[in-house]
Amino acid sequence: MPRKPAPSPIPPALTPSQIKVIRLRAGWSSRQAGRILGTGENSFSDYESGKRNPSQLLRALLWALALRPSLGDAFASGRFDIPSDRTSAASGASVYSK
After folding, report:
1. Contact indicator for 25, 69 with CB cutoff of 8 Å
2. Which residues are CB-contacts of 14 (< 8 A; sequence separation ≥ 6)?
3. Which of 24, 61, 66, 87 has the maximal Cβ count within 10 Å?
């Protein structure tokens, strides 16, 4: 019996309106979204109008925001609670990107 192909690591495309909804749910202006997600302050509106397509990395970030809107605060602040191993996860230790 033939095997099923592995799922693609490339996130699926998003429509311009989906991109806008994700941004609005994060509570960001298009300039803020561009700055926070690293696309440049003026370019994010191009994604929402369909003039440009987001990169694979940006699509992955947008999908993460779509699935877990609370990540917007972490993206905006640059602070992520990431356990470094099982010991620190149990003790509640945190590692921050800044």
Report:
1. yes
2. 22, 54, 59, 62, 63, 66
3. 61
Length of the chain: 98
- Alpha-carbon distance of 92 to 98, in angstroms, equals 18
Of 71, 53, 68, nearest to 10 by C-alpha is: 53
* Beta carbons within 8 Å of 89's beta carbon, 6+ residues apart: 83
> Tokens in use for 79?
């602070």
Residue 77 host element (H or E): helix 71-77
